[in-house]
Amino acid sequence: MPEPEGVIHQLYMERQLPPKVAEVARTQGEDPDRTSLMIEELRDMIYEKGECIPHRIDDDYLIKFLRARFWNVHHAYNLMVRYYAFRESNPEFYENVNPMALRSLGDDDIISISPYRDQEGRRVICFKFGKWRPSKIPIVDLFRATMLLLEVGSLEPQSQVLGGIGIMDLEGLTLNHAWNLTPAVAQKMLALLATSMPLRTSQIHIVNQGWVFDTAFQIFKPLLTDKMRQRLFFHGTDRASLHKYIDPEALPERYGGTKPEYPYTYWLEHLSRDEKVVDELQQLGYVSDPLLED
């Protein structure tokens, strides 16, 4: 699929942060004079406690855990332990998974990720759950695609600092969808979006929700901490409400924005050609041969 002219679906992997993002990083506790010391402290903690065996312990890898927990070494370590425990408990989300095999989620317009950032510099991911057909696409594929996006996003230094934004579009949600949201599924969703990945989900915006969502949300409520609740915003069909948090310049037209929408497939095809990304995904257990399909 040819990439639209003038639109670039790619990661920005430069270690040096843009000035505005570097300033945000400083407010989060990132101090260039202490970075090496805190990385070494986290590395020593991994060796001494032995509660997980990371597949990497180089500086770049450890930094993303530290950034995800605002440079609190103990919290970064606990996040790493949860991350590897989650992986060990859910190997079906990544082991022998070919990222290109997940392209149906883009073809069916269930997931899309914008090549544009919001006014704060954050990535915006849209999940249109009402378009998901459980009889066609198993729920495990939704988890696989979400985990893949978060793994890849966590490689991007700017996203490590700023986090990302999720838009949960619930137009067309039915009881058939709700029946798939068991407490076990809800726990795994929260683990991915809030507690067990080295990339913060800064905000989650719920749009086009109806009475079915109210029923399904009862499963999630007991699992939410106060901090998680503070990241949730409910807008219904009120686009002006959504625009208070995300500038229309960063949104597709369906949400009152100015941008066209591009399928998830564009990201998959671009990332499959990025050697650094492919190498990291292989280390994580993904299959990359062949990544592209004819």
From TrEMBL:
It comes from the Eukaryota. One of its GO terms (cellular component) is membrane. Signal peptide: none annotated. PROSITE patterns: CRAL_TRIO. Residues 98-263 form the CRAL-TRIO domain. Pfam families: CRAL_TRIO. One of its GO terms (molecular function) is phosphatidylinositol bisphosphate binding. This is CRAL-TRIO domain-containing protein.
